[in-house]
């Protein structure tokens, strides 16, 4: 069960709720986010009636949630969440709601020229945010690991030039502060989805988190990872399906589009789809991007490189700027067909 407190929260009201809960032998977990303060009730919730809590001063609502993920559950916020990214009021980027949002850019930041060309290209094409890895935790320690802090500075410069908010991966708990000081959205990579220390740390950050599904995680495990971030206080979580590992070898991963429907039914969080890592081949990105929008995805995360054959990372699945631009026209048509804008 979850108790949502009205803002601004009066400490005595909070104390009254927690002591009422504890007096019945249950535990109360207070989570103070930037937007809401909630109290998670842990234990046999039959010991406390919903109406007994609903009538306490300062309580906005009480939600009974049966799933193991509480804050991430649809029951917690039936209307669905919208996550606003970036700080430029002239260029609001909203993930979730009536429009489909496209985040695009290179796999990794390789240098100024390529990054600025990619940023300009995706901006003109209609992307609402720029992606690009400065830290690249790769499968091989001998592969390009990213430019690190210099890459973050280039991303910030690309934002200045285009106005696009920046989405970039944060590889470890110790780097959250540094990455958050340059980025607009903290990306949790698939390999880190169950790095609970990292999830808790981004849960304390004041900017949104894009949480990639691990290649071997069930949807429930993915939503539980979101729950970690939210329980630590950050409710601005965007889920990202990026393909899972199966027996199939003709694609890099198997893009699980059913996860969009399932996650959206069970959770209020916006869901975006990454057809680039989901398939591993540029030629499959277009059909799967369109299918994702048809399936109800709130957005797409697409790798775009000004010259894919020279890319230091994931060139084979990266679109050229021209292909990206024409894909955006098709995305617009499919979005309109399912009642959404772009
Ligand atoms: C990426 O987005 O470039 C990336 C490394 O993705 P994933 O964590 O899904 O493999
Ligand atoms: Mn990549």
Find the structural class using helix and strand composition. Answer: alpha/beta
Helix content: 25-40%
Seen as an oligomer or otherwise, the chain set is: single chain
Mean model confidence by pLDDT = 95
Percent strand equals 15-25%
Number of extended strands: 14
Order of helices and strands: EHEEHEEEEHEHEHEHEHEHEHHEH
Ligand identities:
phosphoenolpyruvate, manganese (II) ion
- In angstroms, what separates the terminal alpha carbons? 36 Å
Summarize the structure.
By secondary structure, this protein is of the alpha/beta class.
Question: Your description of this structure?
Answer:
The protein has helices at 11-23, 50-54, 112-125, 149-162, 176-180, 196-203, 219-231, 258-266, 275-279, 282-294, 321-337; strands at residues 2-5, 27-32, 37-42, 59-63, 83-85, 93-95, 101-105, 129-131, 166-169, 185-188, 209-212, 237-241, 271-273, 299-303. The protein is α/β, with parallel strands linked by helices. Strands 7-8-9-10-11-12-13-14 form an eight-stranded parallel beta barrel, surrounded by six helices. It has a four-stranded antiparallel β-sheet with strand order 2-3-1-4. Strands 5-6 form a two-stranded antiparallel ribbon. The mean pLDDT is 95.
Topology record:
Elements: E1 2-5, H1 11-23, E2 27-32, E3 37-42, H2 50-54, E4 59-63, E5 83-85, E6 93-95, E7 101-105, H3 112-125, E8 129-131, H4 149-162, E9 166-169, H5 176-180, E10 185-188, H6 196-203, E11 209-212, H7 219-231, E12 237-241, H8 258-266, E13 271-273, H9 275-279, H10 282-294, E14 299-303, H11 321-337
Helix pairs in contact: 3-4, 3-11, 6-7, 10-11
Bound molecules: phosphoenolpyruvate and manganese (II) ion.
């Amino acid at each position: 069960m979850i108790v949502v407190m009205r803002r601004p929260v009066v400490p005595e009201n909070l104390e009254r709720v927690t002591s009422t809960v504890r007096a019945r032998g249950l535990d109360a977990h207070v989570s103070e986010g930037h937007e809401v303060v909630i109290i998670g009730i842990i234990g046999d919730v039959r010991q406390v009636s919903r109406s007994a809590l609903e009538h306490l001063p300062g309580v906005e609502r009480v939600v009974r949630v049966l799933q193991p993920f509480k804050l991430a559950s649809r029951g917690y916020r039936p209307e669905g969440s919208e996550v606003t990214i970036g700080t430029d009021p002239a260029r609001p980027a909203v993930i979730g709601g009536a429009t489909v949002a496209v985040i695009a850019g290179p796999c990794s930041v390789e240098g100024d020229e390529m990054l600025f060309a990619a940023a300009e290209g995706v901006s003109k094409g209609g992307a609402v945010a720029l992606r690009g890895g400065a830290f690249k935790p790769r499968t091989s320690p001998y592969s390009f690991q990213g430019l690190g802090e210099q890459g973050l500075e280039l991303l910030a410069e690309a934002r200045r030039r285009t106005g696009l908010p920046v989405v970039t991966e944060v590889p470890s708990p110790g780097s959250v502060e540094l990455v958050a000081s340059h980025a607009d959205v903290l990306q949790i990579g698939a390999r880190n989805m169950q790095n609970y220390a990292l999830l808790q740390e981004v849960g304390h950050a004041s900017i949104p988190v894009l949480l990639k599904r691990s290649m071997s995680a069930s949807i429930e495990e993915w939503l539980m990872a979101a729950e970690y971030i939210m329980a630590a206080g950050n409710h601005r979580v965007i889920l990202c399906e990026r393909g899972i590992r199966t027996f199939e070898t003709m694609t890099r991963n198997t893009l699980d589009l059913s996860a969009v429907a399932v996650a959206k039914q069970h959770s209020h969080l916006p869901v975006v789809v990454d057809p680039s890592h989901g398939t591993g081949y540029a030629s499959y990105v277009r059909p799967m991007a369109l299918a994702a929008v048809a399936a109800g995805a709130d957005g797409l995360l697409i790798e775009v490189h000004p010259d894919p054959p020279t890319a230091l990372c994931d060139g084979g699945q990266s679109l050229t700027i021209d292909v990206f631009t024409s894909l955006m026209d098709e995305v617009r048509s499919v979005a309109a067909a399912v009642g959404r804008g772009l």
